């Protein structure tokens, strides 16, 4: 009986030890399962990746804007639309587009300056014609108020020739001295021209020269 009790006690101790070991083993986390769950989580984009992607998008927008700008220049500038036989059917390079655009802008500046000079000349011509018109109307009115008949009477054509000769001479100096950029500048130039080119002695010399010229044409 003593031996039987000793064996029973030892068996009970081994059984409890196995039970404790089983319980402890079951409480240990399963690392293999955790590793599997970790790899199955969705990928999260890092800050560096987001920044790289934003930079790529911005660079693409910049390239697209530049390309659109060159396409617009080719559509606007007439010389870019003309066929360049040295290039053939190839697409114009950016350097050629820029050069043709610069040349066209310079051409427009020259045309603008030329037109401004023509407008200035026409304004001076109009002003001179108005002056001539007013003076000629005064001459006609004076002739109508005091009609004189006789063989020595000067014809209207001759009077007009005298008037035209005087006005042509004055207009040459007027056209060279008067600027019509603005009304203020016009006013200043007119007074300056009168003081310099409309002095009594100057007008007298002009009239004498015109009369001598017409007299030589008559006789």
Q: Give the CA-CA distance, first to last residue.
A: 183 Å
Low-confidence segments, given as residue ranges, are 21-38
For the largest beta-sheet, the strand count, sense and barrel status come to: none
Oligomer: single chain
Shape: rod-shaped
Beta-strand content bin: under 5%
The radius of gyration is 53 Å
Describe the secondary structure blueprint for this structure.
Blueprint: H1 2-27, H2 31-39, H3 47-76, H4 78-81, H5 94-145, H6 156-177, H7 183-197, H8 200-218
Helix pairs in contact: 5-6, 6-7, 6-8
Short description:
Helices cover 81% and strands 0% of the residues. With 219 residues, the protein is mostly helical. Residues 37-48, 56-65 have a biased composition (Basic and acidic residues).
């Amino acid at each position: 009986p003593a031996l039987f009790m000793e064996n029973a006690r030892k068996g009970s101790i081994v059984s409890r030890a196995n039970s404790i070991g089983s319980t402890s083993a079951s409480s240990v986390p399963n690392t293999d399962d955790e590793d599997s769950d970790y790899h199955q989580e969705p990928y999260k984009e890092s800050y560096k990746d987001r920044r790289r992607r934003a930079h790529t998008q911005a660079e693409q927008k910049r390239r697209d804007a530049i390309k659109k700008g060159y396409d617009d220049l080719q559509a606007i500038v007439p010389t870019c639309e003309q066929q360049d036989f040295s290039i053939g059917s190839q697409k114009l390079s950016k350097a050629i587009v820029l050069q043709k655009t610069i040349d066209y802008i310079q051409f427009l500046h020259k045309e603008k300056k030329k037109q401004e000079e023509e407008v200035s000349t026409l304004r001076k011509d109009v002003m001179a014609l108005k002056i001539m018109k007013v003076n000629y109307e005064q001459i006609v009115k004076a002739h109508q108020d005091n009609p004189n008949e006789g063989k020595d009477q000067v014809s209207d054509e001759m009077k007009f020739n005298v008037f035209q000769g005087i006005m042509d001479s004055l207009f040459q100096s007027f056209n060279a001295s008067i600027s019509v950029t603005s009304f203020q500048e016009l006013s200043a130039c007119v007074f300056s021209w009168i003081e310099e080119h409309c002095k009594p002695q100057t007008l007298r010399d002009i009239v004498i020269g015109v009369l001598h010229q017409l007299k030589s044409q008559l006789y």
